[in-house]
Amino acid sequence: MTNKSNLNNLTKSEEDYLKALFQLLVEDDSEKVGNNLLADYLNVSPASTNNMVKKLKTKNYVVSEKYGKLDLTEQGKSIAVRLIRKHRLWETFLCKYLNFSWDEVHEVAEQLEHIKSSKLIDELDRFMDFPEKDPHGEIIPNADGEYAVLPKIMLSSLAEGEVCKLIAVDDGSVNFLKYVSEIGLALSSEIKVIEVREFDNSIRIQFNDTIETVTRKFADNVFVKKLV
Amino acid sequence: MTNKSNLNNLTKSEEDYLKALFQLLVEDDSEKVGNNLLADYLNVSPASTNNMVKKLKTKNYVVSEKYGKLDLTEQGKSIAVRLIRKHRLWETFLCKYLNFSWDEVHEVAEQLEHIKSSKLIDELDRFMDFPEKDPHGEIIPNADGEYAVLPKIMLSSLAEGEVCKLIAVDDGSVNFLKYVSEIGLALSSEIKVIEVREFDNSIRIQFNDTIETVTRKFADNVFVKKLV
DNA sequence: TTGATTTGTTAGTCATGGCTAACTTTTTTA
DNA sequence: TAAAAAAGTTAGCCATGACTAACAAATCAA
Ligand SMILES: [Mn+2]
Ligand SMILES: [Mn+2]
Ligand SMILES: [Mn+2]
Ligand SMILES: [Mn+2]
């Protein structure tokens, strides 16, 4: 049981690939994740991905057959979850203590998540009194590496007349997040779907006495829980 | 006045070299800093240093003549001071809020100092209410890049009978810092030099009703202000 | 089922930042 | 002042992680 995985000798790049693969596999639960999808997600060429995947396979973080789909080993998942834990804890810290808005935190957390010190992250967790969710509503994995996916559906999946609560947003785009705040939405907002327009998939929603029309693309990035 | 130096495109390595050069020039105020001294300080080969210095010269951070000594431009100094500010603010944060001891902070701060976000560091500064000194007693440069050297002398420079106050310690060695704490010394400790032994340069010191013998090497890393 | 398209792989190149070994210049010292 | 030593430089190599271009395999669609 000489668990050397604690020494964590991974480079920033290796970490980024593992986290991306995890996010595609588990969070977006794409049935099959191939080389090119991963390349796309990371904005690198398929050749770069192929190369890195080869390395991660010899290091036992990734498994796949030639020309086959990619999967993570338990070791690979564990690394990814730790990165997500760090990322979300830092985002929470930046918002709650350093006056960052939710659209500003992701970029900086992308850097901070690669800092190597388990004491740092566990103490940060303790300092904030073990927060459960990050500023975008996502669940923060705990120190034991337990990972839970928030049960959520896209706002775009609702039918006319349905009522829901905003529980999370995709944190990838600064512009999207600014947009969400600007129209007055936030975590916990109650939203009613007034109308679903078939023509362009836009939907009309009501919240806090406001009525807004949003696009399908927008609604795909807003995650909700149905009410009643 | 299109100040592009704010964009700060420097790599971690480039930053490390600039900070090291600044520390040799200004903090240790070595009269002349050459290629090999810098290489030694950074634990890299003279060839690597030569290479990097060449690059930093074309980028206008460093000046030197062929076979001559190295110096920083104003731009180079400014980068270095910002790194030192970040380093010391993070060390302070780790000590004051995250239960790190003063021997644990340096290594993590070496990583954190390279995080690129001026908002992050200025907000961290504000959050801690603009601390003036880091856990090792050194002055933290302010947001305007003003850098001040703490007026300090080495404990080893004192004569028998002299009394002083410990105001700073070298933060480079974990073992040294642990040693300092273990024998009961800390910032602000009052120390009296009881005896200076010519044979091996060891000195006998008294503080808090304790008497200890310390080596010259130890006393070189303890910085004090003479009292009375 | 076969041809087109998509997906994955390989080869070869580049930039960065390390290294060693060999060389040149400068400085020291005898 | 001339060796010797030290300091600085150069050439050539390596690993990492990007890239493009060319090719092979798998999948989709007619
Ligand atoms: Mn994020
Ligand atoms: Mn998030
Ligand atoms: Mn330090
Ligand atoms: Mn550093």
SSE order and pairing:
Two copies of one chain form a homodimer.
Chain A: H1 12-27, H2 35-42, H3 46-58, E1 62-63, E2 71-72, H4 74-97, H5 105-112, H6 118-127, E3 153-154, E4 163-169, H7 174-182, E5 190-196, E6 203-207, E7 210-214, H8 216-220, E8 222-226
Antiparallel strand pairs in A: 1-2, 3-8, 4-5, 4-8, 5-6, 6-7
The first copy, chain A, binds a DNA duplex (30 and 30 nucleotides) through helix 2 and helix 3.
Largest interface: A-B, 18 and 18 residues
Bound molecules: manganese (II) ion
Q: Tell me the CATH superfamily of the domain at 153-227 in chain A.
A: Ferrous iron transport protein A (FeoA)
Oligomeric organization of the protein chains: homodimer
Helix count, DSSP H or I runs of 4 or more residues of chain A: 8
Structural class category of chain A: alpha+beta
The number of distinct β-strands of chain A equals 8
Beta content of chain A: 15-25%
| Gyration radius over CA of chain A | 19 Å
Overview of this structure, please?
Chain A is an alpha+beta fold. Chain A contains eight helices and eight strands; from the N terminus they run αααββαααββαβββαβ. Among the domains of chain A are: 12-72, Orthogonal Bundle (Arc Repressor Mutant, subunit A); 153-227, Roll (SH3 type barrels), CATH 2.30.30.90. In chain A, the strands form two sheets. Chain A has a six-stranded antiparallel β-sheet with strand order 3-8-4-5-6-7. In chain A, strands 1-2 form a two-stranded antiparallel sheet. Chain A starts with 11 loop residues before the first helix and ends with a strand. Chains A and B meet through α5 and α6 of A and α5 and α6 of B. The structure holds manganese (II) ion (4 copies). One manganese (II) ion is lined by residues 87, 91, 106, 109, 171 of chain B. Chain A binds a DNA duplex (30 and 30 nucleotides) through residues 11, 13, 34-37, 44-52, 55, 66-68. Chains A, B: Residues 10-73 form the HTH dtxR-type domain. Chains A, B: One of its GO terms (cellular component) is cytoplasm.
